[in-house]
Amino acid sequence: MTVANVSQANNYDLPQTLKTAQDAMHLPEVQEILKRLSKFKLGIFMPHMHDEKTGGFQQLADDVMQVESGLQVSFKLTEEIANQNDRFLPVAWFWRGGATSIAAACEMVWDISPDEKERRGKHNMMTIG
Protein backbone atom coordinates (compact mmCIF):
# COMPACT_ATOMS: atom_id res chain seq x y z
CA MET A 1 0.00 0.00 0.00
CA THR A 2 1.26 3.48 -0.85
CA VAL A 3 0.92 6.09 1.85
CA ALA A 4 0.65 9.68 0.73
CA ASN A 5 2.09 12.32 2.97
CA VAL A 6 0.38 15.59 2.17
CA SER A 7 1.59 17.38 5.30
CA GLN A 8 3.07 20.73 4.55
CA ALA A 9 5.92 22.50 6.29
CA ASN A 10 3.93 25.70 5.83
CA ASN A 11 0.76 25.62 7.92
CA TYR A 12 -1.00 28.07 5.58
CA ASP A 13 -1.20 30.84 8.19
CA LEU A 14 -3.54 28.74 10.33
CA PRO A 15 -4.84 29.89 13.70
CA GLN A 16 -2.64 28.54 16.50
CA THR A 17 -5.20 25.91 17.57
CA LEU A 18 -5.21 24.44 14.06
CA LYS A 19 -1.40 24.60 13.80
CA THR A 20 -1.30 22.59 17.02
CA ALA A 21 -3.62 20.01 15.45
CA GLN A 22 -1.50 19.79 12.30
CA ASP A 23 1.71 19.43 14.28
CA ALA A 24 0.17 16.77 16.56
CA MET A 25 -0.22 14.39 13.62
CA HIS A 26 3.55 13.85 13.73
CA LEU A 27 3.61 12.84 17.40
CA PRO A 28 4.19 9.14 18.11
CA GLU A 29 1.20 8.94 20.47
CA VAL A 30 -1.13 10.42 17.85
CA GLN A 31 0.23 8.00 15.24
CA GLU A 32 -0.49 5.15 17.68
CA ILE A 33 -4.05 6.42 18.22
CA LEU A 34 -4.52 6.59 14.45
CA LYS A 35 -3.27 3.04 14.11
CA ARG A 36 -5.70 1.86 16.80
CA LEU A 37 -8.60 3.73 15.19
CA SER A 38 -7.87 2.14 11.83
CA LYS A 39 -8.95 -1.24 13.24
CA PHE A 40 -12.46 0.23 13.41
CA LYS A 41 -12.25 1.96 10.00
CA LEU A 42 -12.02 5.33 11.74
CA GLY A 43 -9.56 8.15 11.27
CA ILE A 44 -8.58 11.55 12.62
CA PHE A 45 -9.79 14.86 11.31
CA MET A 46 -9.24 18.49 12.19
CA PRO A 47 -12.56 20.16 13.05
CA HIS A 48 -12.57 23.49 11.26
CA MET A 49 -14.65 25.92 9.28
CA HIS A 50 -13.85 28.79 6.94
CA ASP A 51 -14.33 32.53 7.14
CA GLU A 52 -17.17 33.42 4.78
CA LYS A 53 -15.36 36.51 3.47
CA THR A 54 -11.75 35.36 3.18
CA GLY A 55 -12.05 31.58 3.05
CA GLY A 56 -9.41 31.39 5.76
CA PHE A 57 -9.31 28.48 8.18
CA GLN A 58 -11.03 28.92 11.53
CA GLN A 59 -11.48 26.69 14.53
CA LEU A 60 -14.94 25.11 14.47
CA ALA A 61 -17.12 27.16 16.80
CA ASP A 62 -18.36 25.37 19.91
CA ASP A 63 -22.01 25.53 18.86
CA VAL A 64 -21.48 24.71 15.16
CA MET A 65 -21.13 21.49 13.19
CA GLN A 66 -20.34 20.68 9.57
CA VAL A 67 -23.30 19.39 7.53
CA GLU A 68 -23.16 17.73 4.12
CA SER A 69 -26.36 17.84 2.11
CA GLY A 70 -26.64 17.22 -1.62
CA LEU A 71 -22.84 17.10 -1.91
CA GLN A 72 -22.63 20.62 -0.45
CA VAL A 73 -20.97 21.38 2.87
CA SER A 74 -22.35 24.02 5.20
CA PHE A 75 -22.08 24.90 8.86
CA LYS A 76 -25.16 24.77 11.09
CA LEU A 77 -25.87 25.25 14.75
CA THR A 78 -25.40 21.90 16.47
CA GLU A 79 -28.72 22.22 18.29
CA GLU A 80 -30.54 22.37 14.91
CA ILE A 81 -29.01 19.10 13.65
CA ALA A 82 -27.76 16.83 16.43
CA ASN A 83 -31.10 15.38 17.55
CA GLN A 84 -32.53 14.75 14.08
CA ASN A 85 -31.41 11.11 13.97
CA ASP A 86 -34.02 10.28 11.35
CA ARG A 87 -32.54 12.82 8.94
CA PHE A 88 -28.82 13.20 9.71
CA LEU A 89 -26.14 10.51 10.11
CA PRO A 90 -23.25 11.57 12.37
CA VAL A 91 -19.92 11.00 10.58
CA ALA A 92 -17.43 12.86 12.81
CA TRP A 93 -17.12 13.21 16.56
CA PHE A 94 -14.80 14.93 18.97
CA TRP A 95 -14.42 15.48 22.69
CA ARG A 96 -15.86 18.82 23.75
CA GLY A 97 -17.07 20.05 27.11
CA GLY A 98 -16.27 16.77 28.82
CA ALA A 99 -18.34 14.62 26.46
CA THR A 100 -18.50 13.20 22.95
CA SER A 101 -19.95 15.74 20.54
CA ILE A 102 -20.97 15.42 16.90
CA ALA A 103 -18.72 17.52 14.67
CA ALA A 104 -20.16 16.59 11.25
CA ALA A 105 -23.22 14.87 9.81
CA CYS A 106 -24.56 13.87 6.40
CA GLU A 107 -28.17 14.39 5.44
CA MET A 108 -29.89 11.14 4.55
CA VAL A 109 -32.93 10.11 2.53
CA TRP A 110 -35.02 7.06 3.27
CA ASP A 111 -36.08 4.50 0.70
CA ILE A 112 -38.95 2.27 1.65
CA SER A 113 -38.66 -1.26 0.32
CA PRO A 114 -41.29 -2.34 -2.23
CA ASP A 115 -43.08 -4.40 0.42
CA GLU A 116 -42.95 -1.36 2.79
CA LYS A 117 -41.46 -3.47 5.58
CA GLU A 118 -38.02 -1.90 5.67
CA ARG A 119 -36.63 1.62 5.53
CA ARG A 120 -33.12 1.96 4.14
CA GLY A 121 -31.12 5.10 4.63
CA LYS A 122 -28.85 6.35 1.91
CA HIS A 123 -26.87 9.48 1.39
CA ASN A 124 -28.87 12.33 -0.06
CA MET A 125 -27.40 13.09 -3.47
CA MET A 126 -30.00 15.68 -4.43
CA THR A 127 -29.44 19.32 -3.60
CA ILE A 128 -31.88 20.57 -1.01
CA GLY A 129 -33.20 24.00 -1.92
The share of residues in helices is 10-25%
Straight-line distance between termini: 41 Å
Low-confidence parts lasting 5 or more residues at pLDDT below 50? none
Number of helices: 3
Percent in strands: 35-45%
Major β-sheet profile: 5 strands, mixed
Rounded radius of gyration (Å): 17 Å
Description:
It is a single chain. With 129 residues, the chain is α+β, with helices and mostly antiparallel strands. The chain contains 3 helices and 7 strands. The longest helix has 11 residues, at 28-38.
Task: Please render the helix and strand layout as text.
Layout: H1 16-24, H2 28-38, E1 48-50, E2 57-59, E3 64-69, E4 72-77, H3 78-81, E5 88-96, E6 99-112, E7 119-123
Parallel strand pairs: 3-6
Antiparallel strand pairs: 1-2, 3-4, 5-6, 6-7
Question: Which terms summarize this structure?
Answer:
alpha+beta; 129 residues; two-stranded antiparallel sheet; 3 helices
Summarize the structure.
The protein has helices at 16-24, 28-38, 78-81, and strands at 48-50, 57-59, 64-69, 72-77, 88-96, 99-112, 119-123. It has 129 residues and is an alpha+beta fold.
